[in-house]
Design a protein that fits this description.
Layout lengths: L11 H14 L10 E6 L4 E5 L3 E4 L2 E3 L22 E7 L11 E6 L2 E7 L5 E7 L5 H8 L11 E8 L6 E3 L7 E5 L5 H20 L6
Parallel strand pairs: 4-11
Antiparallel strand pairs: 1-2, 2-3, 5-8, 5-9, 6-7, 7-8, 10-11
């Protein structure tokens, strides 16, 4: 058993909005519902073309590199292993047999199941498997930690690809003002703050930024 005071849950939607509010307070201007069509090197910085605007900038952080707008596009970076999946079950609020902490059960070397409370007092079950599972099979697997769980207790079911790529921050072009972030990991929400901090430090050092008064 593992007990850690550092393990907690958060409302990811509220967290994302809070991050956005802090960014706006610090002068960030958001261009929403705008698709990047092209990124080109200019005399000073970059020329970015979108479906609505064209503008110049000193630094580009590309978190979704693709063929049409990446200075050093690598087709292999887009390859994904689609044989592994994470299946999620959102349980009914009336289901009483859950515990108010995170529980992980390693089924074998290729699979695991975990239960975690949600911010809205619900419960989320996740099953990782190398083979395709139907609802009955997911329920049966979940019974290893929740013996009384049945179909009637499930409010919603969805799945996602289980990717565990290394997250790579490519700073090889930082002298030109270009940073590329690649990789696909199922824990991307958890990883994002650490990536952001590393990117921030890189840009501050490169642009020789100073704190506002």
């Amino acid at each position: 058993a593992l007990f850690s005071k550092d393990v907690a849950i958060a409302n990811t939607y509220d967290l994302a909005i809070a991050y956005g509010e802090v960014a706006a307070d610090n002068g960030v201007f958001f261009r929403l519902e705008e698709t990047v069509l092209n990124i080109q090197k200019a005399a000073k910085g970059f020329r970015v073309t979108t479906n609505k605007n064209k503008f110049n900038c000193r630094v580009v952080i590309n978190t979704i590199p693709s063929e049409q707008y990446d200075l050093n596009y690598n087709t292999n970076a887009e390859e994904k292993r689609k044989d592994k999946k994470l299946y999620y079950l959102l349980l009914d609020h009336d289901f009483k047999d859950t515990v108010n902490s995170l529980v992980i059960n390693e089924l074998d070397t290729n699979g695991f199941i975990f239960q975690t409370p949600t911010f809205s007092s619900g419960t989320l079950i996740a099953v990782k498997s190398d083979v395709t599972l139907n609802l009955d099979e997911i329920i049966k697997t979940s019974n290893t930690i929740l013996p009384n769980l049945s179909k009637k207790d499930v409010n919603h079911m969805f799945s996602d690809e289980f990717n565990v790529d290394s997250m790579l921050i490519d700073e090889s072009e930082i002298s030109k003002g270009y940073i590329s972030v690649t990789g696909n990991h199922y824990g991307e929400v958890t990883i994002a703050p650490a990536l952001s901090q590393m990117l921030c430090e890189t840009i501050v050092n490169n642009l020789k930024c100073s704190l506002k008064k």
